[in-house]
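Handout, section B. The chain below has 280 residues.
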Amino acid sequence: MDKKDFINAVNGLGALTVAEERITQYFMKHYTMLPFAKIDELCKQIGVGKATLGRFLQHLGFSGFLEFKKHVADELAQTLTTPVERYEVTQHTDNESILTKHYDEVMFNMTKTFASISDDDFERAIRYMQNPKGKLYVMGSASSEALANYFFLLARYLRKDVVWLKADISTLPHQLADVTEDDTLFAISYHRFSTITIRLVKWFHQFGGRIIFVTDQPVNPFVAYCDIQFAVESGSEGFFNNRSSGFALIEAFIKGLSRQKEKNNRFNRIESVFDEFSVF
């Protein structure tokens, strides 16, 4: 079932209840991510009960959410586009400059992202990152690796025991051997998702560590395991999705971490090491 088929099926139901309208709007907005969703977390994000969602899908002709997911996944497997295909589809013939378009795109993504972030979630994430009893593990795969590495390098100025996790399955077990419930994992993953990152998040969750996750897809394979999830906008008419709002959020985390009391001593020590190695 593709998105058009879904819309047609919903239209065939006639008048919708408030809950059904909410489900429909959410599904339409996040259709490509539904195959990754777990029903408990999905219902929480939509704000409806599992029974309500089940009845709605039965009205559409499915036995339940699992059957619906399978139909969506089968269709998406045939229709997912590459960055080149997406770029060709979204080209326009107007005379607006690339620079102006990009500026508008960045500002739209930034505004929408920061409007959706809860101050309470942000402050809680900072507290987890600052926890002096545990380590702060950092990981990002593919294009997310650059964002994660930027955060890692600056976080090292602000607290001790910041651990960089390389997305290499042969070395991860050695790096994770000492994880405790006092530790925090900060993971970044944009669509498409890395199976290594998924396995890492699940493992960290099993051992009781805190998990802070940044992604551009609110419905994803990680959502059931995260303590806090930040969904950032990444819309773009170019070859690749836009990472600007994710980068801005990372810089906000660094600002929050800079309230760490020990930062001055660490700054001075790192600066002295730079001087020692003639790095300037």
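Note. DSSP finds 13 helices and five strands in the chain. Compare this with the example in section A.
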